[in-house]
Design a protein that fits this description.
This protein folds into 5 domains: about 60 residues, no CATH class; about 55 residues, no CATH class; about 180 residues, Nucleotidyltransferase, domain 5 (2-Layer Sandwich), CATH 3.30.420.10; about 80 residues, no CATH class; about 110 residues, no CATH class. Helix content is about 40%, strand content about 15%. It contains 21 helices and 15 strands. The longest helix has 17 residues. The radius of gyration is 27 Å and the shape is globular.
């Protein structure tokens, strides 16, 4: 799966005496990535003792400084100020982020998005060992756990009494809770419960605090890095929530869900104790009805109900992604046949013909089959149903040139397109080609940059390229230019550049506010 290399973990395992192949196979990291870290460490004379006390982000920056160039594009938030402001009544991270955006626009800087801003504050509080000044903040966290008490239903075909386990999730600020009966406590079930919980809440909190479950947490040492299972970490990335296991044997780190489990025992389990359910569906319907009643009952010691407070808290929750997270299965070391297809469950899926006879990995969901080579996703197919046999899914672009009748892209054609846009755009494309080992590796990133002209016009792309280069970005990529164009920084830069100089002008010139561009230029 394509993701940032865990450099510190690789160095730790190397220090423990593990070979490159062992690290790659046991941690599902590509051998190329492991070798790259080994080589950089050898060339720089870096040992694990040198990075032992550094944060993972710092270690990654030490090994790959050029990949952090994009950070200099954003205005730096003053998290000391943010932390002090949060002491005040009614002040939220959402409000402070809006004020930060306004300050950045006045300074001509690119503001961080709300997600990056909130994650930065979370890292600040952790690194400085600080706690929030309010006991609970809206939208800040959800706590999840399995209930100790269980429920039961009768299988009418066998007469067997079957145990149902209860997944419980709670938003501490509103105390709004989610409960789902399950037939097991396996990984796929655990992940699906999270998906259903976020949908039930109508949004996603900044953090999701869980117990140290084997289904979600690989290791949780007293010192060092917490290692989540790949699937649990992927779910957190999809929903943009930080998965944070509570300390070992420290239930006070998730007191809300611990308390909710006890309340659920009374509100749901105890009230259902005299009922007999003859199907799992009947049990789920009964739990859902009693859960809704539980959430809508008035509080005993505060105004309103859990549901009413949730309506306020939803404004602070992150929106749900466009598509829910899909549970996936990884299939490793599948051979690409000479016909450039990979076999999965008696059906064949194409990948670029250049990978014939090579080994690839498959990420399979209920609906798709994704093909990866050394951590890079090559292509995605709609998955054939399990009953289908000997079916082919072939993408035209995966075929050799002799098999298709399309115009091929090459570096000369791409450079000519860039030159037709402008001098700075051509310079950006030349730098991208200069940063790759073989020119074919630069085709996709170059085309991604050039296609921005279709959305923002040639002139704006040329200005954005000029601005990115002037800010010292060695190899501007799509993400750099997209950030500049989305924030209208190219327009501001061009206005400042073309504005007549005057002794009375301020050094930064006249900056139009965000409302000007939002309203089409009308005051």
């Amino acid at each position: 799966m394509a993701r940032k290399i865990n450099v510190k973990l690789i160095m730790q395992l190397r220090d423990a005496g593990l070979s490159r192949n062992t690290i790659a196979s046991t941690r599902h990291i590509s051998r190329h990535s492991v070798s790259d870290v080994f080589n950089i460490a050898d060339e720089g004379g870096i040992s694990y003792n040198d990075v032992r006390n550094l944060e993972e982000q710092e270690v990654y920056r030490l090994f790959y400084p050029e990949k952090h160039a994009s950070e200099t594009m954003y205005g730096n938030p003053d998290y000391d100020h943010v932390h002090q402001e949060l002491k005040k009544v009614g002040v939220t991270l959402k409000l402070l982020h809006e004020e930060y955006v306004e300050r950045c626009e006045k300074r001509g800087e690119i503001p961080m998005g709300k997600t990056k801003f909130n994650e930065g504050y979370a890292e600040y509080t952790i690194s400085n060992r600080l706690t929030n000044h309010l006991e609970h903040k809206p939208g800040e966290r959800a706590e999840v756990d399995w209930s100790g008490p269980t429920m039961h239903f009768v299988d009418t075909s066998t007469g067997e009494v079957i145990t149902a386990y209860l997944f419980v999730g709670t938003l501490p600020y509103s105390q709004y809770s989610y409960v789902e009966p399950c037939l097991d406590m396996k990984m796929d079930t655990f992940l699906r419960c999270h998906i259903h919980m976020y949908e039930y809440f109508g949004g996603v909190p900044v953090r999701t605090v869980c117990d140290n479950l084997k289904t979600g947490v690989v290791t949780h040492p007293k010192e060092g890095e917490i290692v989540l299972t790949d699937d649990y970490a992927a779910l957190g990335s999809h929903y943009m929530t930080a998965i944070m296991p509570a300390g070992v044997r420290k239930p006070k780190q998730k007191p809300s869900v611990e308390g909710t489990v006890g309340k659920i025992a009374t509100a749901i389990i105890a009230r259902c104790r005299n009922d007999v359910y003859y199907s799992f569906a009947d049990l789920k319907r009964s739990v859902a009805a009693k859960l809704d009643k539980f959430n809508r009952e008035p509080f005993q010691k505060r105004d309103g109900s859990r549901y009413e407070v949730l309506m306020e808290e939803r404004e602070s929750l992150r929106p749900l992604p466009d598509a829910p997270y899909e549970i996936s299965e990884w299939v490793y070391n599948r051979s690409v046949n000479l016909d450039f297809h990979v076999v999965y469950k008696k059906n064949r899926y194409s990948c670029p013909y250049q990978y014939a006879r090579k080994k690839v990995d498959l990420r399979v969901t209920d609906t798709t089959v994704e093909i990866y080579h050394k951590g890079e996703r090559l292509t995605t197919h709609n998955r054939f149903p399990d009953y289908a046999i000997n079916k082919y899914s072939t993408h035209e672009e995966d075929m050799p040139p002799a098999f298709r009748n399309i115009v091929e892209w090459d570096d000369e054609r791409i450079r000519n397109w860039a030159a037709s846009i402008g001098k700075s755009t051509r310079m950006v494309i030349d730098r991208i080609f200069g940063s790759v080992s073989i020119k074919e590796q630069g085709y996709n990133p170059c085309l991604a940059v050039l296609r921005l002209s279709r959305t923002y016009t040639d002139a704006r792309l040329e200005t954005a390229c000029e601005l990115a280069i002037s800010r010292g970005i060695k190899v501007p990529r799509y993400r750099h230019l997209k950030a500049i164009l989305s924030a209208n920084q190219d327009i501001i830069y061009k206005e400042q550049k073309n504005a007549p100089s005057s002794p009375e002008d301020s050094p930064s010139g006249y900056l139009r506010g965000s409302d000007y561009y939002r309203k089409g230029g009308q005051a």
